[in-house]
UniProtKB/TrEMBL annotation:
The keyword Nucleus applies. Keywords: Hydrolase, Metal-binding, Nuclease, Nucleus. Its cofactor is a divalent metal cation. This is DDE Tnp4 domain-containing protein. The keyword Hydrolase applies. Pfam families: DDE_Tnp_4. InterPro entries: HARBI1-like (IPR045249), HARBI1_dom (IPR027806). It comes from the Eukaryota. Residues 86-250 form the DDE Tnp4 domain. It is found in: Nucleus. It comes from Euphydryas editha. Belongs to the HARBI1 family. GO terms for molecular function: hydrolase activity; metal ion binding; nuclease activity.
Amino acid sequence: MRASISAKERLVVTLRYLATGTSLADLEYRFRMGKSTLSVIIREVCSLIWSELYPKYMKMPCINDWLEIANKFEVSANFPHCVGAVDGKHIRVIKPNKSGSMFLNYKHYFSIVLMAVADSDYNFIYISVGAYGKDCDSGVFKDRAFWHNMINNTLNLPGPTSLPNTNIALPYVFVGDEAFALHQNLLRPYNSQMLDAEKSVFNYRLTRARRYVECTFGILANKWRIFHRPLNVSLDLAVDVVKACCLLQNFIHKEEGVKGVQESLSGCELEEFLPFDSTEMVPTTANEIREKYKEYFNSEYGSVPWQNNYC
């Protein structure tokens, strides 16, 4: 019997496919393997990358992990109590057979949705892949387990604590764009119509934190050039390819670091995020929480010198 294809060769073929976006026909001549063999190898390796690396490089954070993420967001984005940025990205695919317009998005091409939560180090905290391209970000997010865990308080988020240099106790929050619904743990910008100065400042400060998920998507598409063209594979394999690329990005960042990311953070230690004991009532509705953040960002303690230049 002929020698089998080694694990090293299988990994090299898969990484070549993901990193360059080359076709199976090109890989067939470069590695002297049949298209059907290459297809099976790529599917198996992507699935194994997810199953083997997921528990270490994309596990659900514990309380201390959330506190560390919030500390980094405060240092890099000047947004305290932020534990992640939420957004969706459309992944181009060739129109699946007998799918009608289910995968046709508002940008007029066929896609599946990558819904993700990212931290300030451009790592994915959570991803969900495979929703129809026609679905809006808010609808996709509300169908995910992450949303249900958030509204049921089972994400292990820290309890409300005081904002820096104040006695205002507020919950830890995620930030998203206008497509998402407002929630006690999810902030979105104010409507762009009839904004006053304070609301404009809040929108600017929220956008500074939210841009990290946009940059994370940009790094993903630039590093793994399979996303520079529509994925001409089955939907199951497309989902496995996206999940593997997101996980490999976390692997690279956590093992090798990200150029330009400050490794040693100065400022608040984790002990300073202990629950705040105050007689002041913690806001309970989403609108009240957003108003408190708006007041903080426009106060002496929460403002930054340049914020009025961008509003």
